[in-house]
Design a protein that fits this description.
This protein is α/β, with parallel strands linked by helices. Helices cover 42% and strands 12% of the residues. The two termini are 21 Å apart.
Amino acid sequence: MIRSTFLHLPGIGPQTEAALWRQGVLDWADLRRALTERELPRVPRSRIERELNASEVALEERRVGWFGQCLPVEEAWRLYPEFHRETAFLDIETTGLSPYEGIVTVVTVHGGGTTRSFVADEDLEELPAWLGKFGILVTFNGSRFDVPFLRVRFPELPVPAAHVDLRFLLYRIGYSGGLKRIEQTLRLGSRSGVEGVDGLEAVRLWEEHRRGRSGSLERLVRYNRADTVNLEPLLDFAVAELGRRILPSRTAPRLEPVQN
């Protein structure tokens, strides 16, 4: 998908990008050929070619942050197919809705072939270094909850350059509500062993753990891991669906005048 993206190039906005796609200009190679036939509005051909060259180098060198800085936030999902190995899925558990009134109890990071959970009073301090290994962050409502909460706990938290908030990405293709509701609707993900556990139960499990009740922490961690790991099939679905909706086939008519 990233090779079909032109939004990071100078002078190309959503309307121009969509017009190019409709005309059969579906990737960077197509765009290079198109530039030999006509100029895009208000942008010298040489400037676009320079940025295309820079894009190729950044992709070859796996510099996801380069693309993260150039792309609109709502289009960060386009990076995932090429940079899935650099993607971290994250979810947190807390004792409250405000970072100034509650604490972070458990955080799970799923990515790079590993799923690791961090627990308060055990190894939570290791989270920033671990998260710093990744270039893309994926959460569900994390732009409004998880990330702000973690930034209060870890002011120097190295949040990856690109952030995909699945709550808003799924809403874009017609799926709203909480994470569990969407999982059920799409029949994606597994909650085996933690059926019926929700946010309130997660708080109670932490309190039980602090009082010494055996098994409470294990159940809380398992719940948090389900919340995290289930994000991956949801993102796979959303990326595939969005790509199908916005990209035409190569049978589309080619090269008509483009207006931005």
